[in-house]
Amino acid sequence: MKESADRVARFVDELLHGRRPHRFEATHEEAEAMTAAVSLSAARVGADVPDKAALDRIHQRLADALNESEVVDRRLSRRAWLRTAGAAAAAVVVGVGLDEVVRNRQESGRAGGSATLLPDNGSWRPVAAVNEIPTGHAMQVSTASLDAVIINDGGTITAVSGVCTHLGCKLQPDDANRKLNCPCHQTAFSWSGKVLYYRLKAAPANLPQIPSRVNNGQVELYLV
Amino acid sequence: MAVTELRVLRNPDPEPSGQPEPAFYPDWESVYQDNVVGIYQLVFRKVGNAADAEDLAEEALMQTLKTLRLPAPVPTVRAYLVKTARTVLADHWRRHYAARDAANELDQLPVEIIANPDAVDRAQRLLGLLPDNFRNILELRFLRGYSVREAANELGVTESNARVLQFRALRKAAELEREVLR
Q: I want to staple B23 with a disulfide (CB 3.0 to 4.6 A). Which of A73, A165, A197, B137 is the partner?
């Protein structure tokens, strides 16, 4: 009992100090106590909120692995095509073209990337007081020329178009999930304007960015 | 013909009768952005520390994204992701702690329970069900952040006895969690 209690106590200490617990062969009783310790540790207020650095690391490793496998997929599909094409010399020439077509289609499918809305004859116009938008919130604003959403993400103010790129429905901010929802066709965009998901035959374009700045306590957008 | 035209005018993306079609994730970035926090928190509730949660959340996302072809329906991706996270967690407990029973239990946990974010409420309810001496040591350690020595002083027992009390309290909590709360 004492040895088990000591091993579990060390495990609990590591959890409570935010360290990765040491590994060991646990008895059934120890494992049972450890799972309860995990539940209690996870229930501490704010304990399960990931820090941004952890999310960035996950994103980077996924990007490294998945973008690499996308390249491999393209090579494989080209190779498979070459196998069926028969005449090797002709296939190589056409195959290169096919590879380009595939790549171009994928790029155009990314629908707009991070287009920025830069109107001719624009100027900076105040649209809201910065203290109207607490951190972690998005706010709709309407001007004579456009609808926009202003976002305060941890003190950084950005703005994107406030209308869905599918058919122009007005986007509804969903602050809890850091999304902008289209009420018309179950499409959602991230705060950066990227399409998160859509219920359409093809992905709509990402939302255009709108140049924004904070000046004398006012959020200003570059508008006509 | 006239009816078709009217339908198109009213709704450019008409739904077939019955269930509406689900929304789609266009690419892996969308799946990542929409799910990374939720899947991290799900995993955290079963490992209790940030380092393991980061690794296992990444593993669940990686396996899901390498398996599913995108675009894919949102509910399909989310369900697959939760099931993958459950498998990854069970493997973690098996591999690092030889905890076969805990791992098997995780493997069999229904998706709606493992995905339920109500951990704080559950832990509070759990503490409320424990006998006083067990509840005291766990509250001091987990809610008030006392060390074993500080908790021992507060409770007027030796450090060694405080560790044993904590062990027994945790086992009782696990038993209650399994039998009463699920």
A: A197
